[in-house]
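Notebook B, p. 112. Complex prediction, attempt 2.
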Amino acid sequence: MNQPIPHPSLLKRQLPETFVSALAARFGDRFHTTEAMRLHHGRDESAFDPMLPDAVVFAHSTGEVAEIVALCSEHDVPVIPYGTGSSLEGHLLAIRGGLSVDVSEMNRVIAVNAEDLTATVQAGVTRKQLNVEIKDTGLFFPIDPGADASLGGMAATRASGTNAVRYGTMRENVVSLTVVTADGKVVRTARRARKSSAGYDLTRIFVGSEGTLGIITEVTVKLYPQPEAISAAVCNFATVDDAVRCVIQTIQMGVPVARVEFLDAAFVKAVNVHSKLALHESPLLLFEFHGSEASVKEQAELVQEIAKDHDGREFTWATHPEDRSKLWTARHNAYFAGLQVKPGTRAITTDVCVPISRLAESIATTVADCERSPHIPSLILGHVGDGNYHVMLLVDPAHPDEFAEAEGINHRLVSRAIRMDGTCTGEHGVGLHKMPFLVEEHGEDALDLMRALKRAFDPKNIMNPGKIVALERG
Amino acid sequence: MNQPIPHPSLLKRQLPETFVSALAARFGDRFHTTEAMRLHHGRDESAFDPMLPDAVVFAHSTGEVAEIVALCSEHDVPVIPYGTGSSLEGHLLAIRGGLSVDVSEMNRVIAVNAEDLTATVQAGVTRKQLNVEIKDTGLFFPIDPGADASLGGMAATRASGTNAVRYGTMRENVVSLTVVTADGKVVRTARRARKSSAGYDLTRIFVGSEGTLGIITEVTVKLYPQPEAISAAVCNFATVDDAVRCVIQTIQMGVPVARVEFLDAAFVKAVNVHSKLALHESPLLLFEFHGSEASVKEQAELVQEIAKDHDGREFTWATHPEDRSKLWTARHNAYFAGLQVKPGTRAITTDVCVPISRLAESIATTVADCERSPHIPSLILGHVGDGNYHVMLLVDPAHPDEFAEAEGINHRLVSRAIRMDGTCTGEHGVGLHKMPFLVEEHGEDALDLMRALKRAFDPKNIMNPGKIVALERG
């Protein structure tokens, strides 16, 4: 696709000899310079072509990461943290080469404090791993971005997903971080108290900083009691607008839905094919309710009434765990289901989030825009309780102009979202792909504050350089 | 009391002549240099002696604040925002003189977006005013720090209060801010979307920054549907430990209590006298439940069972709005009730917050420490669902050594809390009073990050200088 960067490179740049020999001596066979390893660490789930780091090192502890970053600082080598590689906007592409620090082997659950409803993990622990390890405590970690991402990566991108409408995003659910700063020092951003007014919010500064201010090595997150009862249901609607109005009223009445996901007819069709389901192929809401038996029943009845007011069809229930699991697995595989609508294509995925009052309008204008490019299949799904939705645009690598056309749709979508007081990214982050939109969203004066922060925390510009915000006004 | 600052001053310093004449010409009778006005703006609810600004100006708009700050920047004059003056840690004392910018007349509710559950207000709007103005929408703003503080001030101190256990603090409830930066520019920190991953979290950087990074002029906050049903109840316990264990189990079972406040026997007695109540004078929990009729009933039954398991006495219910209001008014007047335990004294109020698993131990060791100073009455109340509690220590201005003795109790309390992975301030903020504890809590390397942020956002050190963190290592 069209690269916003002038010099992508598959070639190996020259790393300082002393730097390479120091790392090789210290980390032995955990230090790599093979092309295969560099390629694996030079791409993510975005549509960007790979951009390779010059070397890769697997760290096993905060102390090791601190050593590595100190060495990078000494030699002015860019450093990019790597978790599971599931980022979607080119976050970890090595646009200036440098060293990829892979934390996937830092995968130890350090402490579970069940009474306090917190867990502290190394950055490479994935959300599914954490939930398996804490199962017996009666607690769970709800944030669910679809991919089985690492908690370090989820914190770094301020991730969320299907449960955010009830449980919030990583912004609300990170209690504290251990971070290696750009000069190789180890800092803990906060204590484990549930609230604090003790100075600047270092935790929230690093949540969403995408490796550009420091490397997250440990994460303390909030846990929640496993709900006594869970039920899930699907409900179809005649129009997108009806479905969205149903969600707005549900939220406004304070019904504490745990999940409310929207799929358009095209996505329902794709999911039916991929997951062998027989869902009605019209705009659909997929609900999940958490609570006591009585509360779940009450929530469900209330939402059914609201749905009826908006011409919703009958609710189809999935009360058995296996049916529920099938439904949510299908939802989580929607990305792959979508890709198969036109095999051989690559997906450009949008991620706007608007005030929910503007959601129906935002989707409607986007559908109309997509219809002007009928050769580019488009599918929509969304975490509509938050006003956040994704359009998946399937572009054919054999027709490079389709990339530009799809980016045009995305750009117009983002501009409309920003005019509606929304954001260019609800949960994926900026990476490389969203950088051009930040001026439109925040204005240059706000970006100057972000630049000042970046310069203050990373004066040598070695931490994942060239991401989020350009250091000079454009 | 013992001032941590070398040169408190009641004397008027010399402001640059051109600065004074420019402000006088621009703001006319909204610009003040009288001692009475300066005194009013040079103190808060802390036990510190006043430290006066050299002048006071009443701003009416973001544009005016920007003009004022630009002028302060040009003339290197310190600038301190002032809302209602209800801060508790010396936040707004003019330790280096300068200009107090009073935003209390910026008291307009700018927009209520009921469908999106948000309201945008000028910084001087108080929480009670907002709730009156939005009453007809069926929504409310829950954050309740006791005082009828301004929303700008609440954002600046990361305030919370009795409802935080259910609804979170200002950290979670501020959607976006309009801020005047140290060079007099106007920045909006975020759009109105419920979530965003679009760059560094400027909103959370300014929430809790106590006027040291910029002046908050507008605040967009989350609103919540007024609950269908509310009930309140009090329950007495034989010991502090029983009460706290009851709270831990309630939280751990996921009961969504809206409020759970603890008062020790001394505080119950003070409240009985002050508010003419007849509460049983032993450790007490004051609960509030929000939800549907059925859900409130279910929550209350569950908590009653839990209380019974911890030897709680019978619940006393306050279901009628007027009874409930009487109870909560009594709770909110607890500070004044406490002061009357020994008339003529001043209160030093502590504010630690610990992981809830350590709360009983934290309170018990503190009680034991207080008992060694029987001539200093001590009373304890707390937002125990969050692990946050306040000890009110009544010191006699006629015996200056009592200040030092009370500060000793506070210091030991804070040190123990930090060793329990807690914080020196759960909700009051740092101001002047908590500055000495930040090294203990965060370590010098984390404070260096805070210093770097302060220098980056306020290179001339004119924004409420000398608060939160000293610019050099001590």
